[in-house]
Predict the 3D structure of the following.
Amino acid sequence: MDFSLTEEQKAIREAVAAICADFPDTYWRRIDADNAFPDEFVAALTEGGWLSILIPEEYGGAGLGVTEASIVLEEINRSGAHGAACHAQMYTMGTLVRHGSEAQKQRYLPEIAAGKLRLQAFAVTEPTSGSDTTRLTTFAKREGSRYVVNGQKVFISRVAQSDLMLLLARTAPADRAEDRTAGLSVFLVDLREAGGAIDVRPIDVMLNHHTNELFINDLELPLDSLIGEEGKGFRYILDGMNAERVLVASEAIGDGRWFVERGSRYASEREVFGRKIGANQGIQFPLAQAYAQVCAASLVRFQAASLFDQGLSCGAEANMAKLLAGAASGRAAEACLVTHGGYGFASEYDVERKYREAKLLEIAPVSANMILAFLGHRVLGMPRSY
């Protein structure tokens, strides 16, 4: 088995690294301090064609796979940047590309690929249901030639930076559905036409993430905003979720590599008590252990991406990649912070910023406990725990 990158994949990594080099630590430090959106960075990636990498060529994209997309996001985070500003435009493509109508794809994909439209928002989570997606209550009622949507969503990122949003809502009451996953539908919402029907309220969090709570009141959607068949939405978003797991894992791997590289460099330069601190095993071993874990997580990530790109079942592998990458990145973050000592808390060293960004990936978009429960029940065959 050959785990090395192809020449094309190496070229992708180098091209993304070249773009990231134009946005050094000082840029990201300012963006973080101002709680701003990195418009210039996202524009550069869009112009380079990297955010349309999963869109088929006939619609103006690169027509590549999740494997290549994962390389892009890993390199972004490895450079010190924050891929969360743009990653949703990649993993939301799966639902539209695989299950959208030809008319929807013709209408939206070329504009997204050209950077004229942004699809960065994915509205699934609700305050009362949390990770139990089948219990969401936002309802889309069909009334003649339209749907009318009412409900509430939480932790929905980049709404203000998006033109379009994928929305998961009930179209049949839960007590009338044939099973837990039935009666859910996916809609492509044009936020530019939503007006006051969506009340967007920013949530102040510990990192620069642009996440919001949405209050949806009598939002009118045309019938052709429905993606695929009514009531089949849960199955459709699973495609997007598996891609999301792989791509978020790739970001965590990129963060892990940044922490290991930055920590190792500092440990090789910093001198205390007449010797480089990297000569001390208490500093050296945690970084080495983190490096090994990041490398292992990377292999599982590529396995999951390969299965996804072949159209094969990859739920277990995608979830394991997310679990292992988040843990490896967290360990690397801790080792890097400890290596820097007090300087690790100083913003000018960027460790504390990256630490905050990396910690999110241990918890979201799916927590480690939910992944373990999935593996225990669905893979190992033990009784359901949730």
Observations:
- Residues 119-231 form a domain with the Butyryl-CoA Dehydrogenase, subunit A; domain 2 fold (CATH 2.40.110.10).
- DSSP finds twelve helices and ten strands in the chain.
- The chain has a mean pLDDT of 95.
